[in-house]
TrEMBL record:
Pfam families: HATPase_c_2 (PF13581). Coiled coil: none annotated. InterPro entries: Anti-sigma-factor_SerPK, HATPase_C_sf, HATPase_dom. It comes from Streptomyces dioscori. Residues 129-155 are annotated as: Disordered. Keywords: ATP-binding, Kinase, Nucleotide-binding, Serine/threonine-protein kinase, Transferase. Residues 24-132 form the Histidine kinase/HSP90-like ATPase domain. This is ATP-binding protein. One of its GO terms (molecular function) is protein serine/threonine kinase activity. The keyword Cell division does not apply. Residues 143-155 have a biased composition (Basic and acidic residues).
Length: 155
């Protein structure tokens, strides 16, 4: 189920836009999270990068490390004032993510290091049981309309 709201039309002092979707904790679900987030960011006229990279990393972590058979993960994008918040919620709350030491020969283990480098802020919120939400925040500025160009937010 995809949900989108726009509180600005409701006359709230701080305009809020949200997008939320539940996806299967599989590589296909993680890829779909990135693609749906990219299209939503375009619709909101926000820069695609680094937001789509953050979505890709957080969704891949949910599909890889937060996977519980029969339970989905949820991607939520929220814009409040000048802040884009990206949240990925899974049902493996007992396993909290933390950046690992970098082994130059390792083929994995760099996802949260990238999140830490790309996000203005990030963290983990527990609950309600058995869930956890890994979130990242960005303070992007809107991109000017550039008809005929490729991805917005890239140079």
């Amino acid at each position: 189920m995809i949900q989108e709201t726009a509180a600005a039309e409701a006359g709230l002092a701080r305009p809020t836009r949200t997008f939320s979707v539940q996806l299967s904790p599989t590589p296909r679900g993680a890829r779909l999270a990135r693609l749906l987030a990219t299209e939503q960011l375009r619709a909101w006229q926000l820069p695609l990068d680094p937001a789509r990279h953050l979505v890709a990393e957080l969704a891949a972590n949910a599909a890889t490390h937060g996977r519980v058979n029969g339970r989905d993960f949820r991607l939520t994008l929220a814009v409040v004032a000048e802040t884009l918040r990206i949240e990925v919620t899974d049902t493996c709350g007992e396993l909290l993510p933390r950046p690992q030491g970098l082994d130059p020969d390792s083929e994995s283990g760099r996802g949260l290091v990238l999140v830490e480098a790309l996000a203005d802020r990030w963290g983990v919120t527990r609950g309600p049981h058995p869930r956890k939400t890994v979130w990242a925040e960005l303070n992007p500025s809107p991109e000017p309309d550039r008809a005929g160009c490729g991805d917005r937010g890239t140079v």
